[in-house]
Design brief:
The chain is of the alpha/beta class and about 350 residues long. It is built from 16 helices and 13 strands. Helix 3 crosses helix 4.
């Protein structure tokens, strides 16, 4: 008899990864897809299910935004009800959001085995809520699916060795699928009048960047400096747009602001960019696989391999460093995929769908 898996998602990067995994998982397992509602705006949620041909969620909790404690607590209570009703064999969670932690906590308290995709990542910055979420989730998990050997070593350093599997990064297969779709379905460059390799693509959404007015001001000044050399296209996350409104129009003068884009349009924008400037972990990897130079607007990254191989520059909020890296990006010689992306979904599903021992 096939296993029943409850998959918990709630944010844009999770929808993308779940799209790749669910296509394969549903061949051998009964999957119940639960959307917490953490990202509830259609541009940040529904469009991903539509574009990536993911079946609609079996259960939408509609939690919405809120403080970390209130949001995580509401998710925990609602997910507990779902798990009691569904009685799954395993709960599958992705990444490092509040949805991830709530799913892992709800399952662990009900003695349901937890499987964590993107286990073992560490920024070593405990001020980031994402770091707290991923550390706690890893310590609650029974199956830990790591994107690479660095993550395996970091888990071992914390005493976690049982159930650890270096399966590779499932985001690679999601991206490969999206690139093929984007080539047929999106005309975003034509609509926006952009020439391939003729613009920079910027995104900002992390609390450490957008909730600190002084740091946000430094980052926007750096983007304006880059815009003096080449157009800067800036799809604006809803959280970031609220912060920008307080700064006035001059804060984004010279930047081309867009609404959040669907995944296929974003993939096409990334592939066509001369450089990507971002605080998104997912975009760091996508740029790496697309062979587009990346400037990371953070002081540290979990994706250390992208830096080590020369495709990613950690620039923090240092305006001079950001402008230099963006205006004169390095393009290393072709390098192997540090994350073993090809075949990663099949490896993960094979382990996940095996009957639990005992």
């Amino acid at each position: 008899m096939s296993l029943k898996i409850v998959t918990v998602v709630g944010a844009r990067p999770q929808f993308i990864k779940a799209a790749a995994v669910s296509r394969v998982l549903r061949r051998t397992c009964a999957e119940v897809l639960v959307h917490t509602g953490q990202h509830y705006d259609d541009n940040m949620s529904k469009v991903f299910f539509d574009e990536l041909d993911v079946p609609p969620p079996d259960c939408h909790l509609g939690i919405g935004s809120g403080g970390h404690g209130a949001q995580t607590g509401a998710m925990l209570a609602a997910l507990e009800e779902v798990l009691v009703r569904e009685k799954p064999d395993r709960v599958l969670v992705y990444g490092d959001t509040n949805s991830t932690l709530a799913g892992a906590l709800a399952a662990a308290k009900l003695h349901v085995p937890v499987a964590h995709v993107e286990a073992g990542l560490r920024s070593f910055n405990r001020r980031m809520p994402e770091e707290i979420n991923r550390v706690l989730t890893d310590h609650l998990s029974d199956l830990l699916f790591c994107p690479g050997e660095t993550a395996v070593a970091q888990l071992a350093a914390e005493g976690i060795v049982a159930g650890v599997h270096a399966v590779g990064d499932v985001m690679h297969e999601a991206l490969r699928h999206a690139v093929a779709l984007a080539e047929r379905k999106t005309t975003v460059l034509e609509r926006l009048g952009l020439a391939p390799n003729g613009y920079a693509l910027a995104t900002l959404h992390r609390a450490e960047n957008v909730d600190d007015p002084a740091r946000l001001a430094r980052l926007l000044a750096a983007l304006r400096e880059v815009a003096r050399r080449q157009p800067v296209v800036f799809p604006v996350h809803p959280r970031t747009r609220r912060r920008l409104a307080a700064g006035g129009a001059e804060a984004t003068a010279g930047l081309r602001l867009l609404e959040p884009q669907g995944y296929l349009d974003m993939v096409r924008l990334e592939a066509g960019a001369a450089v990507v400037l971002t605080d998104s972990g997912g975009m760091q990897k996508e740029a790496y696989w697309l062979r587009v130079p990346c400037v990371t607007l953070r002081d540290e990254t979990e994706w250390v391999e992208t830096v080590r191989e020369g495709w990613n520059v950690l620039a923090g909020a240092d305006g001079e460093r950001i402008a230099r890296a963006a205006c004169h990006p390095a393009r290393p010689a072709e390098t192997p995929d540090a994350y073993r992306g090809a075949g990663s979904v099949d490896r993960l599903v094979r382990i996940l769908s095996a009957p639990p021992h005992g």
